[in-house]
Amino acid sequence: MQRALAFAMAALGLSLVPLHARAQETIYLVRHAEKAAGGALLDDAKLPLTLFGEKQAGLLADQLDDAGITAVYYSQSDPAFDPERKGESILRTKATACPLIKRLREQGKPVTAYDLVYPNWIGNWRDRAEVMVPFAEQAVETIRRNHRGRSDKAILIVGHENTVPAMIRQLAKTQLFLLDPETDISRPHEFMGPKEFGLLYEVNLKAATPKEFLRITRYAASSSTAAPATVLDPVERAGEK
Which of 32, 50, 65, 166 has its CA 20 to 30 A from that of 201? Predict the structure, then answer.
């Protein structure tokens, strides 16, 4: 069955060569930290992090500064949709990644930052969740191509409530694994909650079994609005059950 699937994918020009056959060992995926509320005159790509979100980004750097990360991806607006902007980085993803990038570079550790295009055609994903499948296929293939022949052992991808689950499902498919239904993102139409921040997804590309493939940890509290206003410190709340 697996051989037949591989032949079918090859005929379509797609690759199912497991990523663990390449240099990468771990891909970390995280949704951007808590963002500020938008407004009618504020470009979505320019929405900054809240103060709470900035603390979350710092905690992410604490969590990953010794993880061996040498490449970081954050989102880029679609240059085809807005040629004048020429594919500006989406601020909330870049701001989430920057504390880690800065810290690694200050420690003399090499790290390369990449943009990953958030295409305009997935803008209606809430009504048509199936559009996330071709997005994830393209995104994973872009990452595979970028790191072909490189020795990047660990990669961080900072994405969104829709792109992170879609890419994890695609990575599992590429590894020929089925996700555990208890992950809450195992099905094609399952995404992260709008107030769900602070989760770190660790994909093990050397995994021999589906159970070893995905590890989910909380590096910070979910959001500043998930508890009474008197409890706003993501450090304190990260340890709550």
Answer: 50
More confident residue, 92 or 229: 92
Beta partners for 218? 199
DSSP string, 137-203: HHHHHHHHHHTTT----EEEEEE-TTHHHHHHHHHHHHTT----GGGS--STT----TT---EEEEE
Element (H, E) at 102: helix 91-106
Q: Cα separation of 116 and 177, whole Å?
A: 24
Quote the percentage of the chain above a pLDDT of 90: 53
Q: Going by C-beta distance under 8 Å and a sequence separation of 6 or more, which residues neighbour residue 140?
A: 167, 170, 171, 174
CA dist 202 → 151, 157, 208 (Å): 18, 10, 15
CA 194 to chain centre: 15
Q: Using the predicted structure, report yes or no on whether residue 162 has a pLDDT greater than 80.
A: yes
Q: CA 211, 217, 222, 228 torsion: positive or negative?
A: positive
Q: What is the pLDDT of residue 12?
A: 36
**pTM, to two decimals:** 0.82
Residue identified by tokens 């191509």 is 145
CA–CA separation, 28 and 191 (whole Å) = 17
Nearest to 194 by CA among 133, 128, 125: 125
Q: Residues 18-238: name the CATH superfamily.
A: Phosphoglycerate mutase-like (3.40.50.1240)
Q: Backbone phi, then psi, for 114, in 5-degree steps?
A: -125, 150
Adjacent-strand bridge partners of 114? 73
